[in-house]
Write a structure and sequence with these properties.
63 residues, Alpha-Beta Plaits, 35% helix
Amino acid sequence: MHQFSVKGMTCAHCVSAIKAAIQTQDAEAKVQVDLDAGEVQVESMLSEAVLKALVTEAGYVVE
């Protein structure tokens, strides 16, 4: 499981956008977004670097 902090997430649309960005590359990925904590947890076959790049491409800042 990969976990990282993401800035700029504020609402349900943000959650949907992040899930969609990751699941376009890995449809089986399990994505959990905690808006209050600003964290994303992902179970995926993709590397952490790829996951972070996908979230960044969706318009969010990965820390």
